[in-house]
């Protein structure tokens, strides 16, 4: 990512590392630069922690460059959530970008579950997420929800572009790659194969030793819903990818929460 200046004069960085001691997870490393801040972590009943980064700004602005690094060391368990929906503001000619690195150690758990992203009209954003899993015992749940824009204001797919590349490695081997490139001026965003008339797209990824036991129940859950459309894929490495389209963000988030509950039930991922 280019090191162009943003409103804070440099690349904005957030680094959070969770360690484990005596069956309890603790915050081992924490550093950040403006506009990032981090609340004191919440302790969870089963020994994990929940971390909530804060943004001391109105959202993502033109020229912003961000780098986020989240790691759970061996046997640690951490959930990362956001404070509110993330707004990508209108931009004149430039763009904004973010690099995210998620690293999970042996027998460790990392949940990355930010709230939805809202790209305003004429905004441009490029995101790149790298996921590094030490081995088969490393578990990660990843969630990304993208809006069509401020639909209530008549802004449906009025942004210039929204790019999101996700790559995952296990044992240093590339096991998953998803490259979403949304250019409303070039793509028929309302058509089949894109948003199909819906307002939100949710991408869920679950990496685990063998996540195949989740497939049937997740599919049934999606098929039972009247206001969403989606599908579930089992990858060659027995990980799970879910994509869901919906028009009510609360409904979509509830479905994502229920899918996470299925993941915990089927895999024994009960640390958080």
Report the portion of residues in β strands.
Answer: over 45%
Q: What is the alpha-carbon Rg in Å?
A: 18 Å
Global morphology: globular
- Taken in chain order, the helices and strands follow as EEEEEEEEEEEEEEEEEHEEH
Number of domains: 1
Tell me the structural class. Answer: mainly beta
Low-confidence stretches: none
Q: Oligomeric status of the shown chains?
A: single chain
Q: pLDDT average, as an integer?
A: 93
DSSP helix count?
2
Largest sheet: 8 strands, mixed
Q: How many E strands?
A: 19
Helix content: 10-25%
Q: Kindly report how far apart the N and C termini lie.
A: 33 Å
Kindly report the spatial arrangement of strands forming the biggest sheet.
4-5-8-11-14-17-19-18
GO molecular function: nickel cation binding
Keywords: Chaperone, Cytoplasm, Nickel insertion
Subcellular location: Cytoplasm
Protein name: Urease accessory protein UreD
How would you sum up this structure, described in words?
This protein is mostly beta strands. It has one domain (12-267). The chain has 2 helices and 19 strands. It has helices spanning 215-224, 249-267; strands at residues 12-21, 24-32, 36-38, 42-43, 49-51, 53-55, 65-72, 77-81, 86-88, 96-104, 109-113, 117-119, 124-133, 139-147, 161-170, 173-182, 200-207, 228-234, 240-246. The strands form 4 sheets. It has an 8-stranded mixed beta sheet, covered by helices on one side. Strands 2-1-7-10-13-15-16 form a 7-stranded mixed beta sheet, with no helix packed on it. A two-stranded antiparallel ribbon has the order 3-6. Strand 1 and strand 2 (24-32) form a beta hairpin. Helix 1 (215-224) runs antiparallel to helix 2 (249-267). It starts with 11 loop residues before the first strand and ends in a 5-residue tail after the last helix. The model has no long low-confidence stretch (mean pLDDT 93). It comes from Lactonifactor longoviformis DSM 17459. UreD, UreF and UreG form a complex that acts as a GTP-hydrolysis-dependent molecular chaperone, activating the urease apoprotein by helping to assemble the nickel containing metallocenter of UreC. The UreE protein probably delivers the nickel.
């Amino acid at each position: 990512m280019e090191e162009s200046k943003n409103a804070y004069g440099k690349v904005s960085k957030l680094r959070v590392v969770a360690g484990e001691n005596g069956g309890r997870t603790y915050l081992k490393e924490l550093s950040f630069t403006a506009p990032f801040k981090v609340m004191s972590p919440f302790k969870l009943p089963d020994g994990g922690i929940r971390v909530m980064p804060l943004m001391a700004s109105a959202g993502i602005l033109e020229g912003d460059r961000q780098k986020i690094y989240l790691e759970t060391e061996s046997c640690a368990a951490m959930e990362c959530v956001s404070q509110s929906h993330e707004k990508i503001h209108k931009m004149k000619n430039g763009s904004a970008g973010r690099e995210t690195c998620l690293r999970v150690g042996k027998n460790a758990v990392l949940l990355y579950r930010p709230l939805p992203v809202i790209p305003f009209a004429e905004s441009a954003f490029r995101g790149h997420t790298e996921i590094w899993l030490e081995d088969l015992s490393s578990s990660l749940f990843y969630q990304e929800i993208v809006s069509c824009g401020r639909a209530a204001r008549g802004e449906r797919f009025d942004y210039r572009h929204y790019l999101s590349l996700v790559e995952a490695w296990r044992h240093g081997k590339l096991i998953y790659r998803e490259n979403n490139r949304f250019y409303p001026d070039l793509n028929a965003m309302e058509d089949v194969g894109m948003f199909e008339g819906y307002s939100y797209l949710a991408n869920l990824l679950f990496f685990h030793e063998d996540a195949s036991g989740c497939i049937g129940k997740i599919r049934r859950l999606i098929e039972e819903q009247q206001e969403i459309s989606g599908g579930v894929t089992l990858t060659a490495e027995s990980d799970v990818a879910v994509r869901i389209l919906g028009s009510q963000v609360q409904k979509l988030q509830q479905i994502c929460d229920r899918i996470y509950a299925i993941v915990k039930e089927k895999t024994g991922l009960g640390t958080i």
